[in-house]
Amino acid sequence: MLVARTLVAAGLKVPAEAALPVFLECYSARLLDTTVLYPGVLEALDAFRDRRLAVLINKLGEMSRRILGGLGVEGRFARIWGAGDVPAKKPDPAGLRLLLAETGVPPESAVLVGDSAIDVRTGRAAGVLTVGVTYGLDPASLDAVPPDLVIGDLRELAARVAGPFPA
Question: What is the pTM of this model?
Answer without folding.
Answer: 0.91
